[in-house]
Structure formats: structure tokens, C-alpha cells
Amino acid sequence: MTSSSLDNAMFGLFSTHALHLADKHGVFVHLIEEGAATPDRIAAARRIDAETLERLLLVLAAVSVVERDADGSYRLARALVPSFDPQNPRYIGGFVRHLVTNTTGQLQQLDAYLTRGKAAVDAELPSPFETIYRDEAATGAFLEAMWQLSYGVSHELAQLAGLEDVRHLVDVGGASGAFAVAALGRYPDLRVTVYDLPQVGPFLERTRDEQGLGERLSFAPGDFFREALPAADCLSFGYILSDWEDKTCVELLRKAYDACASGGRVLLMERLFDEDGGPLATAAQNLSMHVETYGRHRTAEEYFGLLREAGFTDCAVHRSTWDKHLVMGRKP
After folding, report:
1. Distance of CA 17 to the CA centre of its chain
2. For residue range 262-299, what is the model confidence (pLDDT) as tens digits?
3. What is the full DSSP assignment across 40-86?
4. How confident is the model at residue 50, as a pLDDT?
5. Is the whole-model pTM more than 0.90?
6. How far apart are CA 65 and CA 79, in angstroms?
7. Burial track 161-176 (b if 16+ CB lie within 10 A, e otherwise)
8. What would be the CATH architecture of the domain defined by 4-87?
9. Domain edges within the chain
10. Is 95-330 a domain of CATH 1.20.140.10?
């Protein structure tokens, strides 16, 4: 008899794919809009195979994503409705799709990393960001996943940041503007510049137009390894430093220090390890960082060390109710 923890570890592959397929084929939307339903009824409405659907729903019931009634109908667990509602900021469908269609395949590299080392294996491969931004479709899929991973929590992070005294924020690697939009919505006197690779520009401009932000949201194309960062009262890095090794992080933070006004701040928004090595989501994403980027996740104290090495002081951490948190440093 296996324990539940071992079962979850062994069979997580199946539940992740079941999540993805149920979201892709509108099963969760059907349960949200119509309430409890049998597999036959859902399958008829969504024009999918009933037997395959029932097997997927049994897996999702076993991990408590859906609940199975005595009459054989299924309902989505109430607490998880926001996570599978495409209209809700907590929607995770795009990120789950990224895990299945991108991350899963790349995890196969771990065997080679174990036997030959990451540096030797990666030397034979294109850089991670060449793969991520290889064409417009791949860029769009990645940015959508990052938006879904970041937009909901960004509202809380913007509040925790306390930007009432900031007039200009530069969001370094800000993608299609999840944190920028949240911050602009909370602080009416704020102006935000998203600094990212040129191919991100059209997606940021689309966000600006859809959100009606006009001149308050602008885009600055560039490569933070080759150029200085734009000057600002405050600079932010969301899920950026976890892409890079410590030495590179310090180099980027020194550029932020040079660009930051005296008395200004830098914001780091990242998953954080607890001192005991958890939680699971951070540990799993830390493994993902190993194959998808050059970085890793860290504790708050480790980020404090990087900030201090770059010259920042008064370091502090503000934890959100989500799994992304805020680490801050100030330029004297």
C-alpha cells in the first residue's frame, strides 16, 4: 500500500495533463456555468468523448479538483472556481498549458544534466530565451502564461510596495505589463515604463490599448546585458532574477542601482523558498528554472545578500497571500 504522498509524487503527471485537457476543452467552464453534470452531459455539450472525459474526471476527483456526487455527476470544487474561470485574475489555464506543452518536454534534459552537467549539455542547445522568443506565436504563448501567473498577485504586490511617493517606475523585463497595469490602477499619479526585448513591444502596446492607459504606460526596447537601464524613482524585477545565477543578478542590480534615484527603491517579485526548503510550488519551479533558464529560486535572505552586494540597503520582505512575494531594497 503506497502513501498518499508517494501517490501524488508518482501520478502527478496524470493530474497535470487532466487539468490541461479539462481546461482546453471547456469542461471547467461548463461546470462553472451549468453546475454539477454527468460526463455524458458535459461531453455532449462540449462535443468530446464521454468515456475519456469520465476517466479524466476520476483523476481530478482523486486530487480533489472536482467532487463526484452519488448520482455520478461532477462539480468543480468551490474554492478552485477562480483558478479555472478564464475571466478571473486567478485563472491558471495558460500556465498549466505552458507546463504541459513546454516544460514537460524540457524536463527530459535532467537525465543528461545528471550524467554530464548542465553546462556541457546546454552548450549544444540554443539559449532558453532564443527558444522562448523564437517566433511571434511562441512569444505570445509565453507572455500569456506569465500574465496569468502574475496579474492576480500583482494587485497585492503593488499595494505592498507602497508606491504613493513614486512618480516613475521602470519594470525591467515587465513582459506584457501585468505588474505595470496593477500598479497604474492603484496609483493614479504613477507612470510606468516596461523595459524588455523588442519583440515584446507589440504585446505591451496591445495591453496599453486594451487597458486604456495611454501615455501612463510606455515601452522601452532593449537588452539589459548590453545597455544601461532607464532612470526612474523605482525599478522592479518580476520573475527576472530567478532566471540567472548570482553573479549575473548582482550585475543587473548594480545597473538598477545606477538607474535609481537617490532614496529610490528596487522591487524584486519572486517565489521564495522557506528555510526548510519548501513549499512544493517553489521547489518544482526551481527545478523548472534549471532546464528552462540559467537561474534558481532563493530565500529572502539570499536576495538580501544580492541587494546589499549591489549597494542597496534597508532590505525587507513583504509576503503576499499568493506564492509570489516582494523583496525590497533602497538606494541611500
Report:
1. 19
2. 999 999 999 999 988 889 999 999 999 999 899 999 99
3. HHHHHHHT--HHHHHHHHHHHHHTTSEEE-TTS-EEE-GGGGGGG-T
4. 97
5. no
6. 9
7. bebeebebbbbbbbbb
8. Orthogonal Bundle (1.10)
9. 4-87, 95-330
10. no
